[in-house]
Amino acid sequence: MKKRIKIKNKEHSSPYKTFLTEYRTQIKIEEDYFKDRGMCYLGISNNPRNKYQWDKQRYVNPFDDTNYQYPNDEIVYLDIDPSKFMNMRILASSGVGKTMLIKNIVSDFHKSGEYNILIICPKQPEWIVARKKGKTHRLHPKSKNESLQISNYCASHIKEHAEMKQFSLTGMKYYSHKINTFTQRESWTALGLSAMAGAYCAGLVKQGAKNLKQIHKQIGASDLMPSTKASAMSKIGIAIEEGLFGKYNTINFEKEWGEENNIVVLNYYQKDGYLLSTDITLAVEKAREYVVKSKGTRKYKKTLIIFDDAKKYCSKIDYNEASIHLIKNCQTMYRSDGIDNIIIYQNQKGIDTDIAEGSDCTLLSYIAETESISSIMSREIIYLLKAPEDVGGLILDNHTYTKEWIYIPPQSREIYRFIPQGCKVGHEF
Prior knowledge:
Elements: H1 15-37, E1 39-45, H2 48-57, E2 75-79, E3 87-91, H3 98-111, E4 115-121, E5 150-155, H4 156-164, E6 173-175, H5 185-189, H6 195-206, H7 212-220, H8 226-242, H9 253-259, E7 263-267, H10 274-294, E8 302-307, H11 311-314, H12 321-331, E9 339-345, H13 353-356, E10 361-364, H14 379-386, E11 396-397, E12 402-403, E13 405-408, E14 416-420
Parallel strand pairs: 3-9, 3-10, 4-7, 4-8, 5-6, 5-7, 8-9
Antiparallel strand pairs: 1-2, 1-14, 10-13, 11-12, 13-14
């Protein structure tokens, strides 16, 4: 029988035991590093050192560390830090993985438990499928496929339009606005009224006007200029016909955020025009009202508002006045309320200048019209977007048909190129 040797001095422990202790310590440090930082994984950096490894594993899983260990400094991520203000733009053409990327960002921010999330979705209701679990294998080892806890809403005046376009309304909740919230001139100018007529209508609401028909009648009897009066009555007539103030209740953010911790998505089914700008403005102001009210309570969290396909409601068009004013406030004044924002568009052509220049960090990929961003991006960035892959341009993953992305942090000249993860929540494409 072999005699057991009792080791009293740690210096005489076996090399394997020392290695194992150091390895476990390193793993613990690495886990604490990610846990303490609060990270939203974007993807793996594209540099000459791991370019071969990416090419080799692009059909397997380039993020899987069972075959290749990527150091922490090669993982591109966003800090999830409620103490900092996030004011981000996402710029990319259609078909480069924009929706998949934003779904991953929403998943990580929501999972942190630090944010209420509101998403403005003016196109098709692509967030419905995010309630299903993702199926990708292309994930960082510390990420996993999951589903999102989402409440999908549609304005009551959009319902008929969505049915006419043959969109599915399965799983939708409906909401309506109340006329007593139309106390600001901007709410009425969003309907197409002039500033003077808008101020007049706001005054009527403050005096107790109960419905649009009553306001329509009082404008007809007013001493406004004939052309102003005719235009206002026409626009209000459209709002009456569309049913802007329907039979449903307003969105209950107290229940959705404070009690059930849901992500709220507003779906507009490709609707645009006066009512879109008005509806977005009123819905976001309703959300802000809840945020301000919850301050100082246990239910208070920061709020992240995502303005998807923002070109529809922040282009320089008269009827977008209300939503343009709203987004400018989100970029500047609302930070004191704890409201962060992400604005998404395919290019900046026609976008209000203040909004285009108002974001302080950027995620971008291939853009067809680089001229629209030449005033806010460096020549280096423009070159990367224009250049072919074989001379340093953004690479294309032929397996998922998604492009490489670039991250530019706040107040930084550094750029981080990365290959995005797969979509870890349900995605219809």
